[in-house]
Amino acid sequence: MRFETAAIHAGHAIDSATGALDPGISLSTTFQRGADGGYSSGFVYSRDANPNRSALETALAALEGGDQGFAFSSGMAASHALFACLKPGDHVISPDDAYYALKVMLDTYFSGWGLQVEFVDQSKPALVEEAIRPNTKLLWIETPSNPMLKITDIRTLAEIANAHGVWTAVDNTWATPYLQRPLDLGADVSMHSSTKYLGGHCDVMGGALVTTDGFPLNEKLRFIQNKLGAVPSPFDAWLIHRGLQTLPVRMDRHCATAELVADFLNDHKKVEKVYFPGLPCHLGIAVASKQMANWGGMVSFRVRGGASEAFKVANSLKIILQATSLGGVHSLIEHRKSVEGPASATPDNLLRLSVGLEHPDDLLEDLSQALDSIA
Ligand SMILES: *Cc1c(COP(=O)(O)O)cnc(C)c1O
After folding, report:
1. Cα 239 to Cα 42: distance, rounded to the nearest angstrom
2. Active-site residue, from 90, 97, 171, 366
3. Res. 341 pLDDT band, cuts 50 70 90
4. What was the pLDDT predicted at 343?
5. Mean of all residue pLDDT scores within the chain
């Protein structure tokens, strides 16, 4: 099956009892045990496995080109599970620009727990190779990165890591498996905040990991998922699974409009710089065109002036809403530095825009009038 077809059919089956095209939402936490003491359905207790979660995991694995899907209650819970598979004293390499809460989790929680964490500019593969130590276990990649849209060469870094016996995991949230498939590029794990494009409507939290059958941490991951219990509810799993069905068409539209928005901003005299992997001036365009099918729906830009001009632009928008998060139907804009917190290295005048599914002309007109509001 091609991607668009798998998005609709993977993990979906006709309900044999009712003929419904999709099974219902299985709210029961517990499943009947047979006279022989066995569980003929394969389900025992919903923390360990639930029909909606299993169906979602099947779909996630299919779309990422992997074998095993692990669904979690949030993206942070998914990344936590992977780092928790390591041991105190292990060393991990993380990007210098990455989802802020991940940096905080590694810097505070996991450093206290005994993990050695190093943040490296991964757009330069030589710096990553230099950072590898005898106790390095995991290379964490985020590409495109949040919020600077840095591009990291997954294939090159996975080869370097593999040669040193280091596992590679990629936060694939911004690209989605429709645009980028880390496992095909040599990574061991693809991670998602399903809260974003996979769910696609900003109405459900979720996270996911996808691996192949031979990955040595599979058993431990399943243990952490089931026994620590940061699992999605059946309804959440159902919503994300439904969201996947329209992922390709939504991404096509997100990408097409984002390209128009990036070009518009790039030509605008009130805009100092645009970060979008499809712009010829972007340092990562060559790698992005190799490993991504399209540029994605996220655009960051710096407003001429400082934080107050950036805030004025965000406050003047009428259609584009000011809120955190991304990947939904609404266009959302955010002054990222003031959300991230004290250790943020994000420029003061940077706005991050998640380009939604509205008509492109409405978005361009809205940005135009908002940029006109500053001197
Ligand atoms: C949102 C996000 C996360 C965290 O996911 P949650 O679902 O909010 O826990 C991780 N990585 C990236 C790139 C994100 O955008």
Report:
1. 23
2. 171
3. confident
4. 82
5. 97
pLDDT, one tens digit per residue, over 68-126 is 999 999 999 999 999 999 999 999 999 999 899 999 999 999 999 999 999 999 999 99
| Upper half-sphere CA count for residue 291 (Cβ side, 13 Å) | 28
Position of tokens 């989605």?
Answer: 176
Evaluate if residue 342 carries a pLDDT over 90. Answer: no
**What pLDDT, in 10s, does the model give residues 225-245?**
999 999 999 999 999 999 999
232 close to ligand 1 (CB < 6 Angstrom): no
Catalytic site residue from 103, 137, 150, 196: 196
Amino acid identity at 173: T
| Candidate from 83, 97, 148, 173 with most ligand 1 atoms within 8 A of CB, to mutate | 173
- What is the reported pTM? 0.97
